[in-house]
Amino acid sequence: MWKIVIIDDDRQVLQGMKQAIPWDELNAEWAGEAMNGADGLEVIHNVQPDIVMTDIYMPVMNGLDMIERLREEKFGGKIIILSGYSDFEYARQALRLEVADYLSKPVSLSTLKEVLGRSLGQLAQEEESRVRQDELERKLMTYEPFIEKEWVKTAVSGALDHTFRSDELLPEDCRYWRSCRHAVIGIEVVRDVRASQLSIPDWNLFRFAIGNIVTEIAAGQAEAYEYTELAGTRSALVLHPPKEQSERETAEKLEELGKQLIDSMRNYLKLTIRVGIGTVKSDWRDIPDSTEEAFRAIELKRQPAAGGYEVYTGILGTAPEEGASAAMRPVKFYSEVAGAIKTSQQSLANDIVDEYICRLEHEQDVTPDYLQRTASELWGIIAYSLYDVGMVLDDLFPDVQLPEELAVLTRPAHMGEWLKSKIAVICSSREWRGNSKHRQAVDFMIQYIHEHYVEDMTLADLADKVFISRNYLSIIFKNMTGETFNNYLTRVRIEKAKELLMERKMLVYEVAEQVGYKNVPYFSTLFKKFTGMNPTELAK
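Now predict its structure.
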């Protein structure tokens, strides 16, 4: 219901307006009245009307002075002047004060109705616009952590658009990058038999477990760091060594951190990883170079650490390898093309491939070995990326003979044609599940579950956060993860409970509470269902 206040020093005008205005038809109500500008201000302050209709000549304070005060106070409603004087100077002042309309007395009922209807229509449009803006801001606040992580990912991989590569546009949490050094530790999960046999739900759990382990170890070694997942089985840890730290000391600390990561993945997850260390950079815009060096070191197995650890070190100023110019940025290429395929953007994926192939063709001495190895790596990265959206690459290409297909890739154009043919099959597949918006929603949900599993949460709660209906979100989540929301939440809680029980620092009921269960017998039942043993057996 819209609220209208009328201010006029003629009581007959006030009474007449009350009777003449079609209140129900306009969905409006009489909210107050006054007979001078000073009293009018008080009424307006008290009731906060949507429309103020006022005379100009009034005692104590005239209408124009009152309007000027309202404008100084940022009054957001509409103001209509209803005056017995048709003076040009008054009209000019009214225009300066941005009144909605200027009517001369006497005014016909049809004119009054038209002016009020037009002003209320404008208010309705402005209100709708405010609601949309508020909803957009709520969405941005909801997705802000996710957006910032995506920014870090693009900055680390080299995919950040050049227009955002300025100190002023750094996200708030990354502004300290301007005053420190940077080094990237590249992490690659070895695609051995165990890793290759992981189901989609299991891979999602392991992905978050890897992130938790990396960040926990990094937190004990560094004051500031960022962890981000890259394409497929790759991820990166960005560290910021103190400027006063010597190069040798920095190298030793990074190498020791790499060893800890390898040990922890082996002990806790039974996964084998390789670690590459990029050189230290003084400018955050050079972080992608450190990323490239880290993964190139893994690829070339350059300078392994002592003791059998697969920790490899990039060397500043050395040629990466014949046919493998650092300018080609395969990490950026892998990230961009895998991201486009995941969101079923075939045209974008083809453009990314064309651009990369064009750059390869302008490089000297690009060898068939380099092309075949790049294609093989990308095939694995695409396979693991599609896991995220519920697809199995081998099911799409059941008869593929990968070694034979790779063997004929002897020129960049051959690799481009091969990649684009695979992209066409993937993006046109009827098995494709979900678009980019849905992928973002599910990514946010998974992240939220892993960060808030202790809290009570329902699918309806998360549906409100991602602005998708509960029933539809249930279908999207099941399609993209391979299991229901409740089952996924339970698995996350049980996996965390296993970690806590293996530490043998808490009793079973304490562990149950730590992972979100107040009913211990119910927790024990779920634990046995998912692990095949009672929690008391694991705690012994």
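The CA atoms of residues 501 and 539 lie 5 Å apart.
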